[in-house]
Amino acid sequence: MDAPTTTSADNGTSGGSGEGGWFTPRRQPEPPVGGEQETTEGSRLAALRPVGRPARNGGEPAQKRISPVAEAGPAGADTSEARADTVNASPSDTSTPPQPDSQPRVPEQRSAPSRPASPDAVRVRRTMAEVAPMADKVTSYFYALLFVRHPDLRPLFPAAMDTQRDRLLKALLTAAEHIDNTEVLVAYLQNLGRGHRKYGTRPEHYPAVGECLIGSLSRYASAVWDEETEAAWVRTYTTISQIMIDAAAADELLAPAWWHAEVVSHDLRISDVAVITVRPDQPYPFLAGQYTSLETPWWPRIWRHYSFASAPRSDGLLSFHVKAVPAGWVSNALVHHARPGDIIRLGPPAGSMTVDHTTDSGLLCLGGGTGIAPIKALVEDVAEHGERRPVEVFYGARTDHDLYDIDTMLRLQQIHPWLAVRPIVDEQAHVQLPDAIREYGPWNEFDAYLSGPPGMIRSGVHTLRDIGIPLERIRHDSVEELVAAVD
Ligand SMILES: NC(=O)C1=CN([C@@H]2O[C@H](COP(=O)(O)OP(=O)(O)OC[C@H]3O[C@@H](n4cnc5c(N)ncnc54)[C@H](O)[C@@H]3O)[C@@H](O)[C@H]2O)C=CC1
User: Fold this and answer.
1) CB 328 less than 6 A from any atom of ligand 1
2) Residue 433: CB within 6 Å of ligand 1?
3) How far is the CA of 229 from the CAs of 120, 127, 222, 240, in angstroms?
4) Cα 404 to ligand 1 centroid, rounded to whole Å
5) Listed residue (182, 198, 225) closest to 19, CA to CA
6) Is the peptide bond before 113 cis (omega within 30 degrees of 0)?
7) Residues of the signal sequence (predicted)?
8) Mean of the pLDDT values across residues 60-82?
């Protein structure tokens, strides 16, 4: 499954919780259908059958598709990458096949009230604890079951999925484990469901995945598996899949499953970083600070996440900053092979590291390496709104040479008196990016935006908390492990 998205340390997605149980399946698992074999598996299959119907309200406008967590790959199969340019992308979109995310994409249950876990959640977590030491085996068995029993699903996954095959499973298990954390989980699953449209996932695929999920869990958690546990998993999976299906159905009314986009310019700024501009084949609505998933023609069905490097433009063009990382299939193809005229595919926009235009707080922005891309988009966004809010950008790089976009940022500073850009070069400053902000401030009237390598985000959140910025005013993508680290 794909990447994350986070938002702010507080994901900003509350809402919708008052209706009494997002996670109470709106449709109870169906009893075994007459005529269907009365085997355990027949029952599972029937119980897991989701209902492919659009959400009651027809969905939200595309512009509102902001979720606190990133999307995961194909339902079932996500192969999508870790966010290539984002926090979860580990050191990159690296891997030999694209590296899977080592972290689940659901934020920690930081905001969950300290209510006792539901009986289903207790059973689900007991199963997870049981299978944890055999995660590899569970994963292999799950995909073996899926592809043997449902060979029609194989094409939804990339040809080479050795190292990332567990994305789907991971996302499902993570979601199941957080089944009580409704507000965060619903947003996560909705995003996941929408994101799965680009893989060709359909409602009828979900029961197959659920059946194989339960098949592999029951095998490897046999010591704790019983009828109640199975029923808990069926309810949990039914809830998960129904939210994903509903979100995908609602999104279908609003947006394509993917966009084709033609590369219109390719600017190799330094040996391993290119600024790539593309023209989507139809309007692509997004917000500054968000990111998208991207598939190249060279690595079909392998998706990577990249932040938009500009606010929405009147000519509809989109740009990305891509760093080629060792063994990064997609990033190397984009940096070293892509040329104008090439056609790529884009998934829907995601992410909520966006500017809150209802306040006039200042923006304290930390961009490390190619993490400067969405920061530039945020600056343009503030400029377009014509507001006079102070924006302070700290742009970190290892060396002077790595400040590949400093000219653009300094040009923006010249035009906008409310903008200050401060390059922080490790080898000169003898201090890494987050710590550099301690010498400036005060920052109590600022919202903070962090974009860059995971280590920078992690230490950035720590520093910002340390200087008194509350968690809910700190925004960045893919936060789950970071939230856990500071909470
Ligand atoms: N929305 C987002 O969060 C985005 C994230 N990214 C991510 O940013 C990264 C960029 O990679 P590179 O350009 O190679 O950056 P890099 O690894 O050269 O780091 C850039 C700067 O970040 C700071 N930094 C790095 N690691 C740190 C740590 N552990 N603690 C404190 N500060 C640290 C340092 O000031 C360093 O000079 C990639 O991992 C990419 O996935 C890229 C674009 C958007």
Assistant:
1) no
2) yes
3) 8, 8, 10, 16
4) 13
5) 182
6) no
7) none
8) 32
